[in-house]
User: Fold these one by one.
Assistant:
Number 1:
Amino acid sequence: MDSIESQTSSGLSVNRREFLEGLSIGAIATTGLANAGALTSGNEVHAAENQPPSNADAIATSTARILVGAPVLQCPAADGMSVVWQVSGNATGWVEYGTTKELGQVVRPGGYGLNSMDSPVLSARLEGLPTAATIYYRVAAAPIDFQNAYKVVRGETEYSEIYEFRLPDPDAKSFRWCVINDTHEVDQTLSATLGKVEERQAELMVWNGDIFNDVRSEKQLVNQTLQPAGRAYATTRPVMFVSGNHDVRGVLARRLEECMLSRPDNSPLGRCFSLRCGPVALIGLDTGEDKPDSHPVYAGLAQFEPYREAQGAWLAKVLTQPEIASAPYLVVHCHIPLFGNRRKDAVEGQLEFARFCEQGQKFWLPHLEKAKAQLVISGHTHKHRFMPAESGQVMAQLIGGSPNLPLATVILGEATSERLQVTALQMDGQTLGTWTFPPRNPA
């Protein structure tokens, strides 16, 4: 919501590099946050080669820690999981994993014959994991001092502790997940809501948009996604990110995917997701900004309107996939609500953007109605509200609360073969409501 005051940046120079494509099977690295190096001619390379060694070898014996914080699990699948971890400088890294604490397998992210070397974030994709298994893993990093093409100094490897996670099981009898939204970089709210997610023993968390006010710096980008409020929060429970309108603002908004990974099977709509977890199918959609693309505040940089339309085509296909179509429950997550009241001063025929996503209604609702979706969980308004499916509204809508700590919410979903129960918990201690849904495809 625009009630949160945006902060601006000044004097910030940003270097970006393209996504790695054609990565080796079993290893996927996200775009790095490395500093760009200067290109030299062949003669200059040889001149550097003949220079006497520098004293930069100290990196090999440095006592500075290269691993920062704890790893973050993202993008779960029935047979895969992504792992993201932070490093304090230029480093290479990998993930060791297995079905026991002895681990035994390694995935080294990279591509085109090179292992990854990035800063301050590394990531890898674990694929081909046994269905419904418990997986043990740890991340590793080794600092790299790339002095020139003929002198690369590698420091000592550092390892995280061993963690474990369970893959989502489409055949599980029950599933429990939590949703938070509109945390807007408020540490007290983040700490309280993440603590409540832990307390409720959720198997997965959906972070339903407006993680940021706007994305202004690399430090902010990394800290808010990988160690919010200084917490390790997704070492054993994966997080699925749904971007909000504030998350696509700011000079570094185009680098979100470096920490908020795209699902590998959804490109170029990687911020959308579909996932079967026991009796429930979870869908994530990206509502984008809350103003028309033509609004002058975007300076001609926005193209969310065709992006929403493309998501509709993607959604039509996803909802017919057997694992999604056969789920007893279908729950949608998107930041801006799909239902709401038009503004009193709205021009006739003009699309509504700020209060609800009218374009989402146009391109998404026909497919969701056909699939008998039961619930959409949203945020954005900073005010809890439940709207039952009635008066032409094809499914119920539950809106989460505010970044203001007492009014912040955690939404808990619990699905069994008999019922889906959803509860909104407010951080002031109130239970705002519990709603129950029968299966959409009764036996």
Number 2:
Amino acid sequence: MSKKKKKLLSVIIIFGLFITSWIFADTVSNSYQKDSVTQIYLDKFEEPIYSTLYYIVNYYYGKENVDYDKIVDATIEGMMEGLDDPFAWYLDSVQTEESKIDIEGKYGGVGLTIRYDYEMDAVIIVSPMNGTPAQRAGLMPNDYILSVDGTPTSELGLSKSASLMRGEPGTEVTLEIYRDSWNEPKNITLIRETIETKTVKFDKLQYKNKNLGYILLTNFAKSSPQEMTEALNNLSNQEIEGIIIDLRNNPGGLLQSAVDITSMFLKSGEVVSVKYFDGTKETIPNIPGNYYSFLQNIPIVLLVNGGSASASEILTGALKDNDVATVIGETTYGKAAVQNTFTLSTGGEIWLPIAHYFTPSGSDIHLKGIKPDIEVSNPEREVISMTEITEEEATEAFYTTTEKPVINIEEDLQLKAALDFLTGGN
């Protein structure tokens, strides 16, 4: 697993896992056939892999304690790493569960954002989500989860702790919680509910006597087009004089969601073109009927940075190349790989690039990114502690289940530049 992927896997939200930058489409079969070409490679793999397994089973000193599921996962992950492609991944069964939640936008659980505190060797709560069982139970940022249903989180780790807290709505889960102000830990039993996260957050801003719409799009899930429709319906009734679409740190998502949402802002023209593994090409135009006419005569700004990737870059490239929006911020991530998922008997999935996409102008942005029209950088924040939960981080996590964005104009130079651009300021 790459260092970049490991870093992003170190922070997990119970409702999902944001995995680097991703976009995938159902374009090829999820089954395989042992044709003559494939058999050549199977023959090449069979002897060394089976021989290695034979020696482990028969000669390894610690053979009684071998976790063969772990060996299978490591073998598959090694095959993906052997491709030397940063976008060819293997997700084990737990990670696969996380990614599917990300795509669906809802799950059965208690509504917590968590991460792992390696100093305390326990899971720490970033924040409960608004309107969830965790919030109603009074759980707070910086509380520690010592065990889930009696199993210590130090043994489970982050991913398995998150997985164990999820389950069918209406079922119980007991968390052992420790808070600094308590003399001893307390067991708190929660009833799981359906937790629905919001990928689109919006608000109306008044800036220099103008009404401006602000839309934060966190990723491209199945629910994102409907959420964007609700946001635009709301803003269309408020005499908006300009729109900001914030794609910063948006890692991507579903290709179809990207096309659906782009078509809401693009009256006509090409959204993206795709070249597949077999040499075939596809040009994807805007979807007639998706466009919001109130946008026709108002300026649009896209905010991007190095974390804006994949589907975010499809939206950015389409609106930029079709002269619909001005792009402000920093050069985007640069991922034009379209991945397909293939389910394995382990319960995991391989994510394999099956195509590359190109922006409407024909630009290949892979590993290059999209340069903004106006370059603005936010100052890097000093990291005081890897475990400290900041107030801003906790607030953002709290609003995960709501349409409310967290906005701080004074400290956000990129957002301020966008507002000044839309109002003609300096």
Number 3:
Amino acid sequence: MHKLADDLHQKLFNEEDARACKDIDGSACREVPGNFFRIIVSQGLTKIGDAVSNPKIVLPALLTAVGAPLALIGLLVPIREAGSLVPQLGIAGYVRQFAVRKWAWVAGSVIQGACILAMAIAALLLTGQVAGWSIVGLLVVFSLARGLCSVASKDVLGKTIPKPQRGRLNGWSSSLAGAVTIAAGVGLFSVSAQQHVWVYCALLAFGAVLWWIAAAVYSQVDEYEGATEGGANALTHAISKLRLLVDDRRLRHFVITRSLLLCSALSAPYYVLLASQHSQALAITTASFVAISGIASLLSAPFWGLFADRSSRQVMIMAAVVTALLGLVVVSISHWYPALFASQWVLPGVYFVLTIAHEGVRLGRKTYIVNMAEGNQRTDYVSVSNTLIGFMLLFMGGVTAWLSQWGLMVVIAVLSALGLLGALMARALPEVER
């Protein structure tokens, strides 16, 4: 099995790239081929799980099907995203105590699977407000576990995979997830306009199993011991790391840029809402958008990953520009040719392009921050960045909710403007792949 991984790895990378291990430990370099595929498979499985429990598409449909209050649906994206980001300073201080950090990722993946399965059970046994609050409460725990995985994964990636291969690893794992997500979307077409709860619950149960399999695969990653400084007084050490935003100009610039690039994630629910306003069957809209997101990831992730290994900064710029221009096109259509939205292909096509752009934003910023730092500095960079982004996500989510009283197009226009500003900020970032 080890020889198969070595041979396949050699075919995927030229000899120069395969031996470019100057930024990781020499003993870890020998394990790169096996670790590369273990991480791809485990990340791909969790990405599929994320797709079949999507808080922008699947969970809102599930809450609607169980008769949960509409207000709870608006909490899903902020809780899932900010809930995993805001606590990461404290989580990073805890993770720093361990010389081998893959077990933190394994534990987080097991917990996420358990929460998703519990959501399915709650939806089958409960209804209305009780079901809605139960699912939201489980989503809080899920998000905390997701934050644990986020901190640990980037550190393990930096210790086990050479810099010239990290972008492609992320890209191929997303592409793998995209392929299976297409199948999930096709399966959802069997749901009638009445939206059978058991179909959504089956999706969640499938996702739970994937997280547990991913945990088993990731536990086999050969990770060598790393530094544990700062683990004794985890919380105090974590809070002190906020000083990085003052002292480290490059990190500060990246955090500001990443905040502006939230436009791609924040605009997605508004495009889905726009589509639902022009659709007679919510279930069909749900199925369409799940399949579309899978197709977009399958096709675009390998390209973004390869591009990110050459310049993750350029990936962020290009993806931000696409997001911004797409929003401006939609606003223009709404103003001059609103009848186009009634077409069966316009809004699905818009969401397809948006998903491609968001994939670029996500892969670009993930690759950039891993390549920007080394050792324990990487854990500090990730935790500080993610914590601040969590707060920004809550703030910007509140602002967009406030703006929505003037209509969807106002929100999309403002987010497009932020995307253009984010592209300009990314343009001023230094290259980190050289």
Number 4:
Amino acid sequence: MLLIALLLAAGQFAALKLFDYFESEPRAMAAALQAITVVNYTRASLLAAHENRRLALLSELSGREGVRIYAADMLEEIEPLPNDHLIRLIAEKIRERLGEDTLVVLNHFGIPGLWVSFSIGQDDYWVVIPRIQVDRPFPWQWLGWGALVIMLSLLGAYLIASNIHHPLRLLVKAAGRLSSGEYPPPLPEEGAHELREVSRTFNEMTEALVRLDNERTLLLAGISHDLRTPLARLRLSVEMLPDEYCASLKAGMIQDIGDMDSIIHQFLDFVRGIEGEPTQMMDLNALLTSVADRHTRAGRKLTMSLAPTHLIPLRPLAMQRLLTNLIDNAFAYGGGEVTVTTRITAGNIILSVLDNGPGIPAAQMERLLRPFERLDTARGNKSGSGLGLAIADRIAKLHKGQLTLLNRPQGGLEARLTLPIQPQVTAQTKQAFRVNAQPGRQ
């Protein structure tokens, strides 16, 4: 808007200058004709009068209509005309009609007016025309009209810009929700033709993604559900086998069936979705302590170093799933010892899950956050579906946070989760905060 205002102001100024420039020619001609008429009538009157009557006639003519006539001495010091385009143009027009020898002076001898010389025989005279319209007052009315034009133009530009900006703002917001794993409502197809086409194309793309996601969810859910029943029967049958047949083979089969069941469980977690869970004001440390207790009971060594308690908007089940996936991944690939730390910065809570494994090549960090991506050669040939980190990244984005993988300088991997302390607060979040802030609640 500021650029439009500056351009409009520059255009108005240029228009006024052009108008003033092209108007100066007729103004100069009118002023020159006025001076030429006065000089010619004065000269004609003096020529028609008898020589004995010229002095009396000069006295009589002087003072009428403000015009004065003086005898001229060509040895007088003549000051040059001021550097004014209009004055010089008037003097040029006068000389064109009265002759190149005509002198034109402004405010001679301190007497205001336009001084024009003429000769009668050997006598030289000055005609002083005080009321010639040489200067023009500042055109305040032009300034007012120009300001009105600028205001109307800015109003029109604002309406046009708003008509363009509103659909673009909705599009950016919808694209942001789509990138975080949410499906936005259809965009209104309004505004300019190009914007309507963009909104319509975006809506079609969103609908196609929704259909694709629903088909993928249905496919994975159906396959996973159908596989769990025969796996359960197979495990039951294997466990009922007598130990004397082959105890080691039986244990291996049970372990393989457990791994397959775990992979199917991850499939179901991935397709089940977590967008519908309500947000609550919760302490991240409480969820971490709950997850750590389960690992401690399982005999795993999990070290905790937590920052002070701080309530932030969380989806409890989704965040618990994220923490579980990160810690399980660290135990699976990190050498059996895992450390979890949290710290609070100006606007974020940063959670780090640290292991002592071999790490990951820097060029492959982003790949591991995609579904079904695995790097067994770098982190050991462990079984898995490649969905654990993808689910964690999806949950992090749903919380307006970010999940990054970093190689530790002393060796091992850091899975760093950054969560905003004050994200965009919804009505649901406000209600949850009021409930948790009641006296007596922890």
